[in-house]
Amino acid sequence: MAVVGDSLFLSCTVSTKKPSFSLRNDFHGVSVRVPRTAVKIIRSRVFVRSALQQVEEREVLSHSAVEGVLGLDLVSERELKDRGFMGLRKTKLVCTIGPACSSAEQLESLALGGMNIARLNMCHNTREWHCEVIRNIKKLNQEKGFCISLMIDTEGSQMHMVDHGASSSVKAEDGSIWLFTTQKFDGYRPFTVQTNYERFSEGITVGDVLVIDGGMASFEVIEKIGDDLSCKCIDPGLLLPRAKLSFWRDGKLVGKKFGLPTLSAKDLSDIDFGVSEGVDFIAVSFVNDANDIKHLKNYLSARSSESTRVLAKIESLESLGNLEDIVEASDGIMVARGDLGVQIPLEQIPAVQKEIVHVCRQLNKPVIVASQLLESMIEYPTPTRAEVADVSEVVRQYADALMLSGESAVGSYVDKALSVLRSASMRMELWSREENRQSLLSQRQLGVALPDRITEQICDCSVEMANNLGVDAIFVFTRHGQMASLMSRNRPNPPIFAFTDNNSTRMALNLQWGVTPLYMELSDDMDKNIKKTFDILRTRGMVKEGDVVLVIADVTPTCATSAFQSIQVKTVG
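Below the sequence we write its predicted structure tokens.
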């Protein structure tokens, strides 16, 4: 069997020497329409040709040899064989790990169910517990062929309950009187809750309403006793350890400036721990402006940890006011709808979510939508229809990832919740293709230097070409992931397979919409890389005769002084 490469080949070399410009079309019986924007790449050498290329069959690799050179994760390989290229899920799934799913067996079940990223909330559990979870996930990746990235989520400087003395949740009944205190004590005191901030009652008056976790329960302040507050329950509900507190007056949030840093000493200790354990992402809670992210990146750079990606959580009024600056400074965004819903009116959440997703796509930063996607499944085996509609709308907005919080961390139906998230995502993605909604976004230019602008143009044109030609897949050969990320920004119809020899790049691309990252040793010879890839995939039965693949590359020879980028369209024969 041979691999036939036909249709279009476009390459662009950006040299450090004075650039020259030439455009040439060689057609050999095949009509090729070059998008107008592709011709706008000026002051560089662009070469376009169409040819029928017969590649001689080389020695077929054995399956054991294939294992060592291509790092395709187990779940993607299974989906590809079962459903084909267009059946691959594009929306990524993040699961919060907690007591309900922390054993090795439970983690493997989540991995088989499609978990792409495991999130560890540093508000909960011990350092030893986190170590064990990280060790088990890395073992799944190394020994069983999964590709699961690791994320830690900082606690942040926020006002919350420390404890109420009970072993788990406590029910606050209507009309019951509770004392919220800054006093430190051990054990259980009836109707008494410790808070973490000594000045938490400052500026609070009798009649204000204390809201627990955005509405899980509510209390009216009936008396101030020194720094403590005596409160009457007016909306009964559950009080969970470390639940967040907010105050409302006349239907508006009481703004409280605590003067606390975004990253506490505990947060920095948790970050050092995460870096030492080799986590891939750090999600920063309660980011107020871009400087919060820049300071953390400088902190990581000083510790030679630049490969750790920093995500900003949007969950406050301040962060919304500085949204674009925060998105530009960060490596990605998490829309923390739970805490955000405490700070803005509930009816504004859908529009704000949509705007954040749009800004992230414009600035080419991955975005996770989190909080209460399938909240009812913490207790019940099936979601509400409204929850499924909510998940589907997030997918329809082309968010990069969906996240389970309490549903996976403490829920009674962890695997079912992940299954619902996965099936709802895949169905909405299919519907979007059927309705032809995958039109190119009017993109904001990101690059300033000529090579960066050329890269953007090539990726934009490549996605348009892939959609127009109806190719089955897009293969990207990349060392740093930039072209794969830019391709993902355009949300193409076919799936993107990113081949890289940089493991940190592979794990970072795990968060990008529609990108399946694969570890593969790359040479400076692109033809050899492409030939080896097709040989491997054909041997594994993951490509078949007639499959059409658009191939794009930004692999620069290690000894070169110029950047080389190319586009090819190949047909498996």
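The two ends are 7 Å apart (CA to CA).
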